[in-house]
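Model it.
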Amino acid sequence: MHLPVLENQQINEPKARAMIRHAINVGVNYIDTAYPYHNGESKPFVGKALGNGYREKVQIATKLQSGDIISREDMDRILNDQRARLNTDHIDCYLVHGLNAGFWKILSRLGTPDPRGVADYRKYSRR
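Modeled.
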């Protein structure tokens, strides 16, 4: 999620919070985040912006970075860090970022993902 920034490239928190909450108030129900957004500051900001009951109104998506995974413990550590940075107990849609044949082999060896698993993104759109 690209957010408004100040001259020093830091997130303009009041403006970005107002923007996110307005979007939710008019029907947006899907927030996408990732580690690199805003030099790693996107997730903590989004976690704060979704306070005061806004978290319950949206589905949060984030990504498993393919280059950082060697073991199941790596996956768990990264997921737990992402949940903490987002200030949430769960992530609704966990996407695999940078999937290629090599990373698919690693994931398969680790017992995930279930190749039958297919996300239906239509359920996140307003009808």
